[in-house]
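Intended use. Records like the one below are meant for learning the mapping from a protein sequence to its folded structure. Do not use them to infer anything beyond what is encoded.
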Amino acid sequence: MPESTINRRVELEVIAPDSSRQLVLVDKSPFFIGRGGGTNNYLALSDARVSRQCCAIVYDEGGHQLEDRGNLHGVFVNGKKIERHTLEEGDAITFGLDDSYKLIFHPVVVEDSLQVILTRIETLSSGSSISAGLGKLNLLLEATSLLHSQLPLDSVLAAMIDHAIAITHADRGLLLEADSSGSLRVRLARGESGKPVTPESLNPSQTALGQALKKRSSVITEDIQAGNVKLQEAQSIVMQRLRAVVAIPLYTMPRASSLESVVLKTGQLLGVLYLDSRRPAAFSKLDRQILDALSLQAGSILDNARLVERERERHRIEQELDIARNIQQALIPHGFHDYPYLAISGIHTPCLEVGGDYFDVFPLSNDRTAFLIADVSGKGLGAALLTTMLQGALSGMTIGADPLQVFHHINRFLCEHSQLGRYATLFFGILHASGRLEYISAGHPSPLLIRKGQVSELYTTGSFPVGLIPEADYEAREVNLQMDDTLVLFSDGVTEATDSAQQLYGDSRLQQVLASNHAAPLDRLQKAILDSVDTFARGASQADDITLLLVRYRATA
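Structure written out for the chain above:
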């Protein structure tokens, strides 16, 4: 189905496993959802158990349809497994895992602005003349029209505050915005007749703000001297001789009917619209309704701006990950040199956008070739950065550096920078044209040696990864390869691949595949390994990077 842009606004409330929440705009059809962002997913889920192509939301005449696109554990709506389902407000989408993501479907109905205003204003109050009421109504209409303008965000918000000041005859108005911790900061400050006011010169009543936030409702005081005792005694009010104060908290609109969370029912704090005056005020019923409507519009603008900013941040992170992935893939060998005494094949498949595995092959002289495989602890961008550093350090062997000294230096460096919290397993080998193989192991799984149809481990004694033990002592060992001997180097993403029952692929299955295909060309042998792992996993999501490096010795004449 070709992709198209849809006009009807639909949002997904994404609840992550850590309970954090964000809103994602569904503006494409099909709207692809799955693990990672490298497969054209518009919503990327950071859960290795979710399939890369998980599901999609498709818009047609019948509404928004959710389709299962092959998720391993199934796709569920309100607890029921589905193949295709028409989504409705508040539907909860899950992926067959208790501790994974939950998506709440929200079609946003955009009402006509004039209708919103008319339903909010029931009647003109008896304390206001018809002409005055219509004048204030006109101000509200002007403010509402700003929502559809192309003006910069701060210009729209400033105009909203100016309208609120004009309606209430206040001396000044502030828009305070809440940060991620809930603390308020002044975003915009305006005086009478649209005069800008410096935030540093302002001292809004913390008592009024506190009352509004505690009650989660507006605080509108027409004459402090005749009303609220707490406000009369507030120091900032006394010092500034304030007589009227308005504090209206701004919240996101409720986006679900579920009782799972108070935050969902009441909305999250966006900020506060604050007005004050040194003159007593007389707010009519119309004034209060207009203030409520203005605060709703201001809250809507802030909410949308926050969603846009989050979406921009998500795109920025995805772009940076794309750059990191491209750099990492460029550093992985793709076209191998034609060596007269060995054949090589290799592949690296990260489980996320970037991985913590890598391999490398480089000549040291005409009759000596170095090859290595590494696996950094963890996954993602942090692990990928360390693999790049390791690759740069180990490439120094091309200019004659001693391999053992390089290994000890890398180990000391990582241990001295323990705040990195990373270590790496490595296998490094130098194959001579004569068949002599010198190798160093740093905690990496032993390569498997295929010799005349028999499969065995190259070594059985262990060693320490680099970056784990400062005192670790590494040693170089030797073995002589015979003609057509094949070394199979792999990361633990191969042997620790799991099926849907969480059973491990294991060493024995790998050895059986190697024994059955021992005479096959390297590219076919590599494909046989990958096919065997994929068949065993039966579509289970890849939980770790998979890296293979195959080296076959061919004796020269």
